[in-house]
Amino acid sequence: MAGRRAEDNAVFSQQTGSSLSDFDPPKKPKRNKYAFGCAILASMTSILLGYDIGVMSGAAIYIQKDLKISDVQIEILLGILNVYSLFGSAAAGRTSDWIGRRYTIVLAGAIFFAGALLMGFATNYVFLMVGRFVAGIGVGYALMIAPVYTAEVSPASSRGFLTSFPEVFVNVGILLGYVSNYAFSKLPTNLGWRLMLGVGAVPCVFLALGVLAMPESPRWLVMQGRLGDATRVLNKTSDSKEESLLRLADIKEAAGIPEHCTDDVVQVPKRSKGQDVWKELLLHPTPAVRHILICAVGIHFFQQASGIDAIVLYSPRVFEKAGITNSDHKLLCTVAVGLAKTIFILVATFLLDRVGRRPLLLSSVAGMIFSLGALGVGLTIIDQHHGAKMTWTTALCLTMVIAYAALFSIGLGPITWVYSSEIFPLKLRAQGCSMGVAMNRVVSGVLSMTFISLYKAITMGGAFFLYGGIAAVAWVFFYTMYPETQGRTLEDMEVLFGKFHKWREANAMLETKTQVDHGDGNNGTGAVELGTKGPAN
Fold first, then answer.
1. Distance between CA atoms of 141 and 106, rounded to whole angstroms?
2. What is the structure's pLDDT at 331?
3. What does each C-alpha distance from 329 to 123, 308, 315 come to in angstroms?
4. Where does this one sit in the cell (predicted)?
């Protein structure tokens, strides 16, 4: 067979001056291992938030017993970290523009390290809240900087895959937190929960060591006028030399540096200290920027408002309501939830750049609506039978909790961070992403600090019906307003956005442009069309 192929190739070459292999579709570039490594190291900061969420779900049981605090105090303790993280995310945009993305990651880890130790050594409720405040600031920094750095270092072909890593590590952290709960649950009450919280300082040490191997973001280097350093990073993190040059040209244009300028160090046009950025973002946005801002803030709102924190933070209470009363069994069920989230987020990372953002997002939210509705039905039936234990309702509730966590993790969970970090133009990205994170944390804090009070007022089943209704509104919003961004360069976004619900017109224009750019006999897929179409039969 190989000999026949070589013979055909020789004959074709004599006749046309070309070989058959010249007309083969181009091979898909291999995944850039250097960019892959950078994304993993940056995304490790997200373990900090995930571990805190997971560990607090179980630790809260023992904290309440040991410190003898009320349900309202538990609600505040669990949810307040999200409010505190606003201070970190608000400062992270300016800090990352000032000291760089890489050292902002180090700062996030150092702050959380201090917070974890304070919580681990807490002797009373007030001391514990101080530790939550410090840890919250670190979480705010980590949430903003990880997706920004990863988006800026990733080649377009792998951006969805790599930018989903922060959410992957959130889920890994949640799973580790659940496992920590189970591992330390056999210890004396006053020691167990302190070890659960204090162990959270360990990932920070590995994070600080890992950052030493990371390069700085090429976009930040260009903004500092360090073109030589940026070029070296882009050459390592791009799929080809041509893509590296194209990315550099796009960044230089956004930074106001002339395209012909090739010096290693150049003078970048001075910018005001953020005031112009906020004016362009909030006071005088273009239609494209307004559309981008609505999409970024909206997806963060709905990610949290659809009830994910009620599941991951309060799953032991949900399982108890469903009829699982044994403490060990409740903690093992939370481990199952964490395992499902982690498995499905890993599946999502491989689907994002194959299936696209939109199909995954819409199918994920549709599944969440169903699972929340079914969970609400199961819990309502239990209430109507005055808490009587029924095997089928327990199985239904457990299945729907795991299904909801899995469906969230395969779509809405990772896509929120991928989408919001890739759509902002360069000069607005840090501040724009910090606004999205701020919305995310506010809604998460409100939901976390009201869940117990909410289900006492409208029943637990009613609470999940409410979250299901919010998820239904989210599906309509996403379907109407969100264009597909798969395979688009970061600088294409201002063309794609700005039409709001009529975004399909801009998408068609970009598709046409892509086909023209791949002209000269190219069908737009990378394969050359041989011959002509025959007459229709």
1. 10
2. 87
3. 29, 21, 12
4. Membrane
Q: What is the DSSP letter of 526?
A: S
Q: If you search the block for the tokens 């190291």, which residue do you land on?
A: 41
Contact 146, 45 (CB under 8 A): yes
DSSP string of 139-174, one letter each residue: HHHHHHHHHHHHHHHS-GGGHHHHHTHHHHHHHHHH
Tell me whether residue 161 is exposed, middle or buried, using C-beta atoms within 10 angstroms of its C-beta: 0 to 12, 13 to 18, 19 or more: buried
The position carrying tokens 């009830």 is 307
Give residue 327's pLDDT.
Answer: 82
Range list of H helices, 164-225: 165-184, 189-198, 202-211, 218-223
Contacts for 348 with CB less than 8 Å, ≥ 6 apart: 164, 360, 409, 410, 411, 413, 414, 415
Angle CA 45–84–173, to nearest 5: 30
Give the residue from 68, 75, 73, 200 showing the smallest Cα distance to 131.
200
Name the nearest CA neighbour of 452 among 61, 74, 129, 178: 74
Tell me the helices (H) and strands (E) count for the chain, helix number first. Answer: 25, 0
pTM, two decimals, is: 0.76
What are the structure tokens assigned to 192, written together?
């167990």
Using one digit for the tens of pLDDT, what is the confidence trace for 168-217?
888 888 899 999 998 998 889 888 899 999 988 888 888 878 887 888 88
Residue 457 has a pLDDT of: 94
201: DSSP letter: G
Of 172, 170, 198, 165, the residue nearest 184 (C-alpha): 198
Q: Where are the alpha helices (DSSP H) in 281-356?
A: 287-305, 308-322, 327-355
Distance CA(507)–CA(515), nearest Å, equals: 12
CA atoms of 513 and 533, how far apart (whole Å): 23
């973002």: which residue's tokens?
A: 281
Q: Please say whether the beta carbons of 108 and 189 come within 8 A.
A: no
CA distance 471 to 489: 30
Contact between residue 486 and residue 351 where contact means Cβ atoms under 8 Å apart: no
Task: Give, for 455, the enclosing helix (H) or strand (E).
Answer: helix 451-458
* pLDDT at residue 507, as a whole number: 63
Q: Which residue has the higher pLDDT, 403 or 521?
A: 403
Is the four-CA dihedral 428, 225, 267, 256 of positive or negative sign? negative
- pLDDT of 156 > 90? The answer is no
CB 310 within 8 A of CB 451: yes
Residue with tokens 């724009």: 432
Contact 1, 9 (CB under 8 A): no
Tokens read off for 501: 């619900």
d(CA 1, CA 9): 12
Write down all domains in the chain, each with its CATH number in brackets.
Answer: 31-268 (1.20.1250.20), 270-514 (1.20.1250.20)
pLDDT at 139: 86
d(CA 497, CA 494): 5
476: number of Cβ within 10 Å: 10
End-to-end CA distance of the chain: 34
For residues 448, 130, 90, 196, the Cα torsion angle rounded to the nearest 10 degrees is -60
Mean pLDDT over 311-336 rounds to 89
